[in-house]
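Suppose you are handed only two things: the residues of a chain and a line of SMILES describing NAP. What would the bound structure be? This form records exactly that question and the answer produced for it, so the two can be stored side by side and reused later without any lookup.

QUESTION INPUTS
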Amino acid sequence: MQLRDKKILLTGATGGIGNALAKTLHFLGAKLILAGRAPDAFKSLIAEICVNPASIAVAHLDLASPDVNEQALAISREHPDLDMIVNCAGMNLFSASASAPADEVSRLLDVNLKGTILLTQALLPTLMKRPQAAIVNVGSTFGSIGYPGFAAYCASKFGLRGYSEALRRELANSSVRVFYVAPRATATAMNDVAVQEMNAALGNAVDDPVAVAEQIVCAIARDRSKLFIGWPEKLFVFMNGMMSSVVDKALLKQLPVIQRFLLKEAKS
Ligand SMILES: NC(=O)c1ccc[n+]([C@@H]2O[C@H](COP(=O)([O-])OP(=O)(O)OC[C@H]3O[C@@H](n4cnc5c(N)ncnc54)[C@H](OP(=O)(O)O)[C@@H]3O)[C@@H](O)[C@H]2O)c1
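ANSWER OUTPUT
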């Protein structure tokens, strides 16, 4: 799909992957609307990538707010020529399930799943009027592999993957394409010190957000509706679908290390 001159609403642009996505999409000639809780936070990013700050729009959007539908409708009124949404905003929670704070679990489900779905469906009528439109959902390897210590996050990303698949099939004979892209661990503020140390102890690869953004944009440009980033994560995703007991055994070996870092997280 051609990106030049497409009007794209991007969430999560104050974050690591979203920031890199904004730069790459702008470089390729897309017209950006950056949406987030504090639109002023986009000022430095806009100043960095663009000589004419007015050429990048900003919008207020809090995916955890009960008003997310109204916020989305305000965006569609202001931008009736919207061609694409990139749902990149998200939050993580590394915690043993028994001690996961209920309010954080609730907020995580609101941001990663409920708010993202409500935003998407509110903007869908606008997208369906465009000759070539797209919805890009940023999931995770943990949207295909249930991983200890990330139960609520996994639930949200499994949900987002299911939503993306159903929507892609529902819109298959429309002008709107649906993409689901699943990064593996990436070096951003989303992963706190305990998660970073755990990844190092387990030898898990951690990607650069710029490389992740480039792969996501490449998938859109090449009309690749599903992208799982990283090897051997791709293989584990496949194996978990076919023979989950093999992945059960591999994760059982990792469990003592994961539990060590869950304890460290709980104490911090
Ligand atoms: N980093 C990884 O290891 C990794 C791996 C796989 C998948 N992913 C996925 O990649 C995406 C981007 O992650 P990242 O690593 O770039 O995360 P990040 O650096 O922590 O950024 C998260 C972004 O989400 C926004 N956000 C959080 N709560 C929000 C809310 N209530 N309303 C609107 N925006 C909100 C944040 O905005 P504020 O500035 O307002 O907080 C920020 O822009 C996420 O969907 C994540 O699940 C990340």
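WHAT STANDS OUT: The mean pLDDT is 97. The chain has one domain: 7-267.
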